[in-house]
Amino acid sequence: MTRLTLESIAELAGVSRSTVSRVVNNHVSVRPEVRERVLAVIEQTGYQPDPAARRLAGQRANIIGLVIAEPAQSLFADPYFPRLIQGITQACNPQDLTLSLFLFHTKEEEANLYPKILHNNLFDGLIIAGMHVDDPLVSQLIENDIPFVTVGRHESPKVNYIDTDNMAGSHTAVTHLIRLGRQRIGHITGHLNNRASLDRQDGYLNALRDRGRAIDPTLIERGDYTEASAYEAMHRLLAKNVDAVFVASDSMALGALRALREANVKVPDDIAIVGFDDLPPATLSVPPLTTVRQPIRRVGILAVETLLDILDNGLEPARRVILPTELVVRETCGGRI
Amino acid sequence: MTRLTLESIAELAGVSRSTVSRVVNNHVSVRPEVRERVLAVIEQTGYQPDPAARRLAGQRANIIGLVIAEPAQSLFADPYFPRLIQGITQACNPQDLTLSLFLFHTKEEEANLYPKILHNNLFDGLIIAGMHVDDPLVSQLIENDIPFVTVGRHESPKVNYIDTDNMAGSHTAVTHLIRLGRQRIGHITGHLNNRASLDRQDGYLNALRDRGRAIDPTLIERGDYTEASAYEAMHRLLAKNVDAVFVASDSMALGALRALREANVKVPDDIAIVGFDDLPPATLSVPPLTTVRQPIRRVGILAVETLLDILDNGLEPARRVILPTELVVRETCGGRI
DNA sequence: ATGAAAGCGCTAACAT
DNA sequence: ATGTTAGCGCTTTCAT
Questions:
Q1: Is residue B196 part of a domain?
Q2: A337 — pLDDT class (breaks 50, 70, 90)
Q3: Average pLDDT, whole number, for chain A?
Q4: Do B56 and A77 touch (CB under 8 A)?
Q5: Residue A122 sits in a domain of what CATH number?
Q6: How confident is the model over B145-161, as pLDDT tens digits?
Q7: Is-contact A293 A249, C-beta < 8 A?
Q8: Which of A73, A86, A121 is facing B52, going by the closest CB pair?
Q9: Does residue B199 lie within any of the structural domains?
Q10: Chain A window 247-266: which residues touch B at a Cβ cutoff of 8 Å?
């Protein structure tokens, strides 16, 4: 059986190639009865248009790329990206979009990959996640006129983005700890080359300021979103007599909890912990984690929808979405106010 | 700036389109000096061949698809698939392969997706993971002459696959528990619609038989690779007086551990636990998990290499790879023999 | 409303 | 060794 083409469908339906094309693309000018007939043949043969040919003829390819601008090792230590991918594919499938994944494992690979992404004519648009604050990719994308959406906010007014309210979420979390009477509240940050981490840190700082608390920079320890980094950071904070720690992700909160358990520190009695994400680890930790819920899957879905909107309508000015976050109080913070 | 094509490069280099094509594709018959010149222009302009056009002209598109034949929800609860994806992309990047991801979220989506995958002419080949034992995809792939590799073994002699030695790994794990003197060894299975789960169960059964132990079917509880399912399964096993449980994945072992902790059962003193995977959760659990290590990333890498081999050389007869597994003894089994 | 024909960027015979 | 030419399957004017 030779491959099905427009031509073969046309022949079977007794019409011309163009007519079949019109039917496939839902053009208006085709008689209902003819359309019916063509549709029947397509149904029956299981014909699918060739995306390569389509793309070449100047149409959409119905392929979007997801670039995760973060070395793959750290990437999947956290359920964040898997969850995001879930949201993205969930939005892709009903739209008949195919998702291409661009990951790299070393800086060198990154350097090789970017030009390929920029000049790869194959996909219709791009979603960029895990982006660093100084990432040159965005400006290159703009220069090359490639439609894209970033996951995480971006300064440039031309950039369409979807983000969650990292700043407000952190602010709420830290304010909660203050209200509960905690005096020395530490913070374990994520990678500070990342907008979200900076925003979460700012939320922490602002919450303290807003309540008239002095900032003690030694109470801020850097992590990198791995469990292990937070484990170590927590060990350092232990020496500084904190009675609460706001941790920039759930996975890291687990690391902090592990350090505390080993040090025989009672949570929340001696030290309260609040995480960020509300991913499965949060419910399963011992004790269950108080954390800031962010709608990750929703971010993925909106990223796809926004990209599609750009493709269809140009979308000027840029769409900038910040989704609300929510404090989920469980047991590691020691109180519901 | 108009899009770069073969033609424009040809003009800039003062040669014909075909020559540029030959250079790009590393054909022999082109003078070193000309090749040099063309290469320089390509380098300087950042030209990248259009994959769609390439594909259409009958060449490779350098795109491979990854189908995860498992609803996406359960999929990313476990670090298994992310790790596999890491391996796959790690092998794809140096080969200039782009990876397309096919996931579905409902049975209905699955039904819609399969025909699309089968007739999507865009990719050169497919990697199939998370496949169910009765999955019709494999036979359809064969019928449609689509090159593919499965992650997980398959009966059909035509199928190229990469798998880990689930049976031997489980056998070793259970034998270890027997040697340590455990008398009532239970098993929490994965989805039994999955070859790997069945193999792990068989390894468990065979280990008992080989040591002359009677099989008690009530000591086998079904899980589905989620933490929660194992949590519940462990609760059921608790009523049955087991003194050890072999759990089909690390994530599930975490669930079992949680159930035991809540029931105030001492691990490993009262009940020993052995998991499967040796993914990060295993080291981080309390106590650290004894488990069967399988080289997941390596599986991904080999899957890509095998697919490429099929594409290049046809690969007859089919390549069937079973990678060894290894028991990693930590603290939940209570002894090193 | 439908068909004919050109062309998207590329590869691969076929010439030279 | 290099240039010329004919498609690959599709969309899209342009005719009719």
A1: yes
A2: low
A3: 92
A4: no
A5: 3.40.50.2300
A6: 899 999 999 999 999 99
A7: no
A8: A121
A9: yes
A10: 254-255, 258, 261
